[in-house]
Design goal:
The chain has one domain: P-loop containing nucleotide triphosphate hydrolases (Rossmann fold, 3-Layer(aba) Sandwich), CATH 3.40.50.300. β6 and β7 form a beta hairpin. It is globular, with a radius of gyration of 19 Å. It is an alpha/beta fold. A 6-stranded mixed sheet has the order 8-9-10-3-11-12, sandwiched between helices. It contains 9 helices and 12 strands. The structure holds adenosine-5'-diphosphate (ADP) and magnesium ion.
């Protein structure tokens, strides 16, 4: 691990930095020496065919599993590794627990706690994990439920909410942990078409009004085009092509990008 710095010293450092990150399952290479930097406040979308490694990128950021090679840094400091005697060594559980607090994630299936109300869902992490006093956690959670347009339903349990409403609560719950980076994995894929807009509008609002760093995997090309600062097209565990959405969608350079985009266009 000597080839990787103990911290990234550029000022400011990228909020997220993948350095030659490799992830394999047996002989299957899922992330192939991936390099990816995301600046603070940047909204980056990941598109690409099924199985190209999109979800794996997010799972590695959530430290749900170990990477096989390379290093991931958050805000200039190593996430997957920690310094020891002047070198980087694989992170221990304590380091992972501390550093993963910087990252929040929203999933395709909202994964709300079914026995808790919307408000309790939002308060649970701040109170139990961050040790924030209940009254303060309640105030903050109510502000966030207001932000996602769910304050009127704060005392409802998830089973009483529509998919779009549950997903908005899930976004508020992720924000309640005050992450530096927010990840979205196909958060509209499980929703009925008529409620997709209420979730994309919340994400739009976060992009325009909040200076959060966001990484979003999506199949909604029009949405990615509208709101992203940059779009990365994944293929075979690598970034095949990336750029400003107007360029990547309007004038893709690589044949694989062109084929993928014309295939999804036909599917719409
Ligand atoms: P995407 O989100 O782009 O559809 P994923 O990142 O979920 O793709 O998966 C990339 C590849 O890794 C796929 O071939 C998938 O089957 C494989 N994969 C993902 N998780 C595992 C796992 N736990 N064990 C074995 N293979 C996996
Ligand atoms: Mg996926």
């Amino acid at each position: 691990m000597t080839k990787y710095p103990l911290k990234i010293i550029s000022d400011p450092p990228p909020m997220v930095s993948f350095k030659k990150v490799r992830k394999t399952y047996g002989s299957l290479v899922v992330l192939d020496d991936l390099d990816l930097d995301i600046a603070a406040g940047e909204m980056v979308s990941i598109i690409g065919p099924s199985g190209s490694g999109k979800t794996t990128v997010l799972r590695m950021l959530m430290t749900l599993e170990q990477i096989n090679d390379g290093v991931i840094y958050i805000d200039g400091k190593p996430l997957t590794h920690m310094p020891k005697n002047g070198k980087l060594v694989p992170a221990n559980q304590r380091h992972l627990r501390e550093r993963r607090a910087d990252i929040g994630m929203c999933f395709q299936h909202f994964n709300l706690f079914p026995h808790m109300t919307a408000l309790e869902n939002c308060m649970e992490g701040p109170v139990q994990v961050l040790g924030i006093p209940k009254a303060e956690a309640r105030d903050r959670s109510e502000e966030l439920l207001e932000l996602v347009g769910m304050i009127a339903k704060k005392d409802q349990h998830p089973s009483r909410l529509s998919g779009g409403q549950q997903q908005r609560v899930a976004i508020a719950r992720a924000l309640a942990m005050r992450p530096k980076v927010l990840l979205f994995d196909e958060v509209t894929s499980a929703l009925d078409p008529e409620v997709i807009g209420e979730v994309t509008n919340v994400i739009r609002k976060l992009v325009s009004e909040h200076n959060l760093t966001m990484l979003m995997v999506t199949h909604q090309m029009g949405f990615a085009r509208d709101i992203s600062d940059r779009v990365c097209f994944f293929y075979g565990g690598k970034i095949e092509e990336q750029g400003h959405p107007a360029e990547l969608f309007g004038n893709p350079q690589k044949e694989r990008t062109q084929k993928f985009l014309s295939a999804v266009k036909e599917a719409i």
